[in-house]
Amino acid sequence: MQSQEASMKLSLKFVQRFLLFTAPLVTGSVFVALPGLAATHATSGSAVNLSNFSHNPVETSTFTDTNTLTITSIDSINSNSSALVPPAAAVTANADALATFPVNPSPALTEAFNVSLSAAQGDSQGESHSYLGLGQSFSQVVGYNFSIGANETFSFDVNAALGLQTSTEYVGETARAGGNISFLLFDTTGMTDPSKIDWNNPLEFITFSAQLDSSGQNYYTLGKSANLNFQPTNVAINASAGENQQSFFGSLQGTISRGFNKLTSLALVAFQGNQVSVSCKAP
To answer: pTM for the complete prediction?
Structure first.
């Protein structure tokens, strides 16, 4: 009971942080100046909730991974020069991820939850400085051995959101943000060892991805396999671009389902990845 309560508190913490990030994207107030926020920044976040399952998995697993990298440099200065030393470039990067998949005896009450957040910001101080900031986050839940009877339909509800934002200040600075959310179904009938699953060959899939790049190479895609039924109750896309500033917010709500004419065992994988980078090359 204590572990469940701790998990719920942790989930709520990440939900609150994600909502604090996505709310400005929805309201269009992303680029209101905030104290201490560098003008060149990139943020990418995603949240996924799976619920109202028609069947329960026999086992579940979760996985998260985060990576950050920051590098700064300053042009060499003649030690005999009387000029003031300019301030060095500043860069930070952060990444967080969470994944939970507790199973309730009632499939309709079983829920899986994923959150992934990456952010980076940099400031070249307007001088001949260079920097690089990278943030990567990954979150995944897996449900094994969903047993679907002949002429039954496997289904679950999905509520997913993906938000990106970028901004640059000086010439030579770049900001990139990308993210993807995917749901994969695998036929595991007759398998007793999950390691034997061919993860590169899903039975069905649905993917949602987007990218913002200060160079203008922006896109978003939403696709699914032919036999997977997605009944959306809400699909919202909100993208905007201003001078040196861009934002994207997309949300998916609906039911994913797939019917089977014979006894079938399934594995469900839901994962998301978020990546950001900010950089500046000294002239």
So the answer is: 0.82
